[in-house]
Specification:
Layout lengths: L3 H36 L3 H29 L1 H21 L3 H29 L5 H29 L4 H20 L25 H4 L4 H19 L4 H23 L16 H30 L5 H17 L1 H10 L1 H20 L7 H28 L6 H22 L5 H23 L1
Helix pairs in contact: 1-4, 1-5, 1-6, 2-3, 2-4, 2-8, 2-15, 3-4, 3-6, 4-15, 5-11, 5-12, 5-14, 8-9, 10-14, 10-15, 10-16, 11-14, 12-13, 12-14, 13-14, 13-16
Amino acid sequence: MLSRFHSQLLIITISLGVFASVMSTSMLVIAFPDVVRDFGISEATLQWRNLLFYSLFAVGLPFFGILADRFGARKQFLFGMVLFCLAAMMSGLVQNWTGWLFFQSLQAVADSMIVAAQSPLIRASFPKEKLGWAFGWFAAVISTATLTGPALGGLVIEYLHWSAIFWVLGAFGLLALMLAVAFLPKSSEQPADGPQACDGQKVDAGQSAGAARRIPWLSLLSMFAFVLGGSVLLLGTVDAMGQWIVGLLTLLALLGLLWKERRPGSSATLFPREMAKNGVFMTAAVRVFLLFLGVNAIGLYAPTYLRIDHGFPADTVGWIMLTQSLVALVAAGYAGKMADRRPYVSLAAGIGVSVGSSWLFWFADVVFYIPYFYLIFFLIGLGNRLTMPAQNKIALLAVPPAETGSYMGVFQMIQFVTGAFAATLFAGMSFQMLVGIIILCQLAALATVFMKKA
């Protein structure tokens, strides 16, 4: 049994790798105007960095989840941290756009390796009665990255060169690597009583499934081509003829992926064969899509809404939105313990609070009282914090131990791709209509909880 101090040190160690990844995004966004100026490129050209980075990262999650199951999450985490440090430092040294784009793409691969190893490491390191606690504190560390990233990035740009951001990231990466070498358990052995679903039902262990699966290279390439091609089409960065060509290639990539994944007897699949039959996991996956769609939509469009429609200055908007991260940080421990005691109750309570925050946003057009918006983002932060540890625990305990990385890689990919989906779905829509759709999604997610409890 791990001591409280050892448990906290272990979850901090696992979280620090993802901490550096999250902070790199929030720090670098501030530096984009400087990147455009120094490399002599256009903002449209800069979008290729984002296209490649997020496509590689999203597609890599299920792929590296498979590799974590097959070769070991600890090894993958350590290798990912080494690659992250190398890519970050080289991104700070390189003097041309092509080289910088290459090393940023390499960093995306490293980020994907690290994040995909996180769930198997948590499952291997903590008993099931502490998984909610672990996910709660993991989220607290990530909230800290969200809080400190923009401020630290601004300080670096103000007093140094923007490229120094990558040396800061490299330093965080080295710290995470040293802690991981020292404290991550070398064994990935599962608890003797096997995995338990949150309703107490046994889950088929499937111990040989992870080792039996071949590496899905063709599915990986098809998925990457499909995601990248779809992103190019949505952004409209090519002319009419280019859109036809990219559209055709994207369709061929999708057909290739479907053929490879559905071919009878194939073990080289990107998605677990039995995933569609796992009702608890599939319900959790649908639920997390519905919830993260709202979270990402608010994050993308609320700042502009507050500045343009309500005339709030930028610093006021920043402080209002900071409330969400502060609440998430403070409530992490309690939310994790609640997820361990009664995960479905915690999940329902969190979604209920989120619905309340959205209802307040629905009436925001006629309210110009700043504390009203602090209350909204307080509720958003509290709802997210109550929801996510329980949601992650439910999904994790629903899958076979030998395929933890494979399943949770898909689960994490769904969370991240909702950002791109929200950006396109809600573009040009009135904010009130956006909030209305979010409320419907949240109510649908809440219904899945009560369907489970019925």
